[in-house]
Specification:
Blueprint: E1 3-7, H1 12-23, E2 27-31, H2 40-49, E3 54-56, H3 63-72, E4 76-81, H4 88-93, H5 95-115, E5 120-126, H6 152-169, E6 175-181, E7 183-185, H7 204-212, E8 219-222, E9 234-235, E10 237-239, H8 240-255, E11 263-268, E12 274-275, H9 276-287, E13 293-296, H10 311-317, H11 325-341
Parallel strand pairs: 1-2, 1-4, 2-3, 4-5, 5-6, 6-11, 7-10, 8-13
Antiparallel strand pairs: 9-12
Helix pairs in contact: 1-2, 1-8, 3-5, 5-6, 7-11, 9-11
This protein binds UDP-4-deoxy-4-formamido-beta-L-arabinopyranose.
UDP-4-deoxy-4-formamido-beta-L-arabinopyranose is lined by residues 86, 88, 126, 128, 181, 183, 202-204, 207, 219-222, 233, 235, 276, 299, 302.
């Protein structure tokens, strides 16, 4: 049975991708150092799919440990590399942690892909590489300009894309796909897995859910004086289950030899921009739960508006986002209720 390695597979997007890969018939090996996740995610994945992925609690920066895993396992045909530190604000305060962790882990995984002659390497990238699109340049296309990064985190994504591109140009034996996510949100419909941020959530929907649950007093809407219809920032919020299915298509494309190019890149979003207030109001409609909020000053570094042109993913990758926003938000709330039921928060 073809095996796929998921680095960071206990994380938010990694765990949902594990479920979809198993559903598609792949055997999955999860590698995760649990720095931003917990091992019970493996149990919960097994509850959903009935199949427990192999799990190695190791750090992708530890090349010797990685070599042991690849030597022990057989039939590994592909990798999806999620493992990275991903807090924008923290990356500004601790740049060396981000460059060391995110770049070293990538280089190690590329070494493994070469040494074990894998067929495909999928890289978890981000719309953050586009920076603030120029006026009239939304929705952004894969060919839209890459702007200078506004954080070390974003820079590690750009550098990683460049490293992979150069390796492909140098004639690596395997092929690659870069997946640029917009804003992943939601949870699995079973509420067995979802997003579990450490400490005070930085991202919008986890904060909305915790406010709805009464864990947070009220949501601060960071600015309503932007050049947008309701004055709040616009993003392309993509359901995490839809996002996970896109990874299955990317792996299929590489493992089944469907891609002629050595490397390709795809935007993964809905193609629709949604404002902060639209998301908050849709959440209240979807759940019937009130979310107290106040308008607060703008958050430094925020982009005013960005959403993706996803025609290429639709036509070439054969993938399209399907989950309606209301359903995504209802899933996120169900996950928050499950966390309360389990006494997690
Ligand atoms: C969305 C909007 C905030 C919290 C981040 C990363 C990006 C990618 C996706 C990894 C903004 C507003 C938020 C709050 C608010 N991650 N907001 N009150 O900043 O678009 O992107 O996640 O690849 O790299 O930067 O997501 O959810 O933090 O913010 O008003 O309490 O919600 O101002 O307009 P962001 P976000």
């Amino acid at each position: 049975m073809s095996k796929i390695v998921l680095t960071g597979g206990c994380g938010f997007i990694g765990s949902h991708t594990c479920v979809q890969l198993q559903n598609a018939g792949y055997d999955v090996i999860v590698i995760d150092n649990l720095s931003n996740s917990s091992a019970d995610v493996i149990d919960n994945i097994a509850k959903i799919t009935g199949k427990r992925p192999a799990f190695y609690n190791i750090d992708c920066c530890d090349l010797a440990a990685l070599k042991e895993v690849f030597a022990k396992e057989s039939d590994i045909v592909g990798v999806v590399h999620f493992a990275a530190s991903k807090a924008v604000g923290e990356s500004v305060l601790k740049p060396m942690l981000y460059y060391r962790n995110n770049i070293t882990s990538l280089l190690n995984m590329l070494d493994m892909a070469e040494q074990y002659s894998l067929k495909g390497f999928v890289f978890s990238s981000s719309c953050t590489v586009y920076g603030e699109p120029d006026e009239g340049n939304n929705p952004v296309r894969e060919t839209s300009p890459i702007k200078p990064a506004t954080s070390p985190y974003g820079n590690t994504k750009q550098i990683a894309e460049e490293i992979i591109t150069d390796l492909m140009k140098a004639g690596a034996k395997f092929k690659s796909i870069l997946l640029r996510y917009f804003n992943p949100i939601g949870a699995h419909p079973t509420a067995f897995i979802g997003e579990l941020p450490n400490g005070v959530p930085q991202n919008l929907l986890p904060y909305v859910c915790q406010t709805a649950m009464g864990i947070r007093k009220e949501l601060s809407v960071f600015g309503d004086d932007y050049e947008t219809p309701d004055g709040t920032c616009i993003r392309d919020y993509i359901d995490v289950n839809d996002l996970a299915k896109a990874h299955v298509r990317a792996i299929d494309r590489l493992v089944k030899g469907e891609q002629s190019e050595n490397i390709d890149v795809f935007n993964l979003g809905t193609g629709r921009g949604v404002s902060v207030l639209e998301l908050v109001n849709t959440f209240m409609e979807a759940t019937g739960v009130k979310v107290p909020y106040k308008i607060a000053p703008r958050r430094g570094g925020d982009i005013e508006k960005i959403w993706g042109n996803v025609d290429k993913a639709n036509t070439v990758l054969g993938w399209k986002a399907e989950v309606p926003l209301k359903e995504t938000l209802a899933n996120a709330w169900r996950w928050q209720l499950a966390l309360r039921e389990k006494g997690v928060m």
